[in-house]
Specification:
Blueprint: H1 19-35, H2 49-57, H3 70-84, E1 91-94, E2 103-106, E3 109-113, E4 120-123, H4 124-135, H5 145-156, H6 163-190, H7 203-214
Antiparallel strand pairs: 1-4, 2-3
Helix pairs in contact: 1-4, 1-5, 2-3, 2-6, 3-6, 4-5, 4-6, 6-7
Length: 225
């Protein structure tokens, strides 16, 4: 039978990432992107732009039960994302789910990345946008620009972003928020009450999406030219 052998990874995930954690995460993500440049196998992103509207249609009739304004929020943003999504960005292997619980630290030093279940081929900058969403918002839903600056700084020390990647960051960050909002809404509405897995509350990504609607450039995420 097909099997996978992996080594044990020492370390722990952090509940509340610091600026230093974010900078190390940015560097690790850049290393991942660079390491995958000559990887020949490819896998399409099943949860990319083309999959968002069909996913929404699966729960559209129940979306209002989560929030009265949710249908309009999703519909408006889906239309804008479909119209503005960039198709000319550098691509490669991305993790696509690099949340803090998938990154281990040992003595405050990053020790490794786990859970490559969603790994696929897509825009490299989209992977950064996912991390900005996952690592740089506080519990009151405010974006921590200091953490965003550190994450981008750590990344660009190893892989500087191109001009088109920098210009695309606001729409990529909005798309990343949309992707996780949609999957969390679907799980929230469809996970049985007696399930072992507890679904994430979609409210987190409603608030993130609203922040991204106001962003006009990568500077809003802490980037310094």
């Amino acid at each position: 039978r097909t099997a996978a052998l992996v080594s044990f990874l020492d370390g722990f995930c952090v509940g509340r990432p610091s600026k230093d954690h974010c900078e190390q995460l940015g560097a690790a993500l850049a290393k991942l992107h660079l390491a995958g440049q000559d990887f020949k196998l490819t896998r399409a992103n099943a949860l990319g732009l083309s999959g968002w509207r069909p996913l929404y249609e699966n729960f559209q009739s129940d979306a209002q039960s989560i929030s009265k304004t949710l249908p309009q929020l999703i519909s408006n943003n889906l239309t804008q994302l479909e119209q503005q999504w960039p198709n000319d960005l550098p691509t490669g292997v991305i993790h696509a789910d690099l949340f803090p619980d998938n990154v281990f630290f040992l003595s405050n030093k990053l020790s490794g990345l786990i859970d490559f279940y969603f790994a696929c081929n897509d825009a490299l900058a989209y992977d950064i946008a996912i991390c900005l969403n996952a690592w740089c918002f506080e519990r009151d839903y405010a974006f921590n620009i200091t953490k965003g600056r550190a994450l981008l700084k750590g990344y660009e020390k190893l892989r500087p972003l191109s001009t088109i990647e920098r210009e695309a960051m606001p729409i990529l960050a909005r798309g990343a928020a949309m992707r996780f909002l949609l999957t969390r809404c679907y799980d929230w509405l469809n996970t049985p009450q007696d399930a072992v897995v507890i679904p994430h509350n979609p409210t987190d990504y409603i608030m993130r999406l609203r922040f991204h609607e106001t962003a006009t450039s990568i500077a809003d995420y802490g980037h310094q030219s």
